[in-house]
Design a protein that fits this description.
Helices cover 25% and strands 45% of the residues. By secondary structure, it is of the alpha+beta class. It has a single domain, classed as 2-Layer Sandwich (Alpha-Beta Plaits), CATH 3.30.70.240. The strands form two sheets. Strands 2-3-1-4-5 form a five-stranded antiparallel β-sheet, with helices on one face. It has a two-stranded antiparallel sheet with strand order 6-7. 10% of the residues are buried.
């Protein structure tokens, strides 16, 4: 089991409800919990299925140099990149 954090923006209420089944919503669109790898993967499948045009980032504790890993879904200025084996975030141009 490891700590999981999911942050959502502009996702449908149905996804928010699904996330609330497994995680605690501590702020609007911010979910946290301690879950197994299997549950984390199932949560991510729900995100991909239900997020529509929204965007989501999911981060969890793991045995890496930084102590965590993360994945993203949807369009966002902040995009994950790999820099010599370290996961970082690159800021893209503002689309507005």
């Amino acid at each position: 089991m490891s700590m999981l954090v999911v942050v959502t923006e502009n996702v449908p209420p149905r996804l928010r409800g699904r996330l609330a089944v497994w995680l605690l919503e501590v702020r609007a669109g911010v979910y946290v919990g301690e879950v197994s790898r299997r549950i984390r993967e199932m949560v991510w499948e729900q995100v991909k299925e239900l997020a529509n045009n929204g965007n989501v980032v999911m981060a969890w504790a793991t045995n890496t140099e930084s102590g965590f890993d993360f994945i993203t879904y949807g369009d966002n200025r902040r995009m994950p990149i790999d820099f010599d084996g370290l996961r970082l975030v690159k800021f893209g141009l503002d689309k507005k």
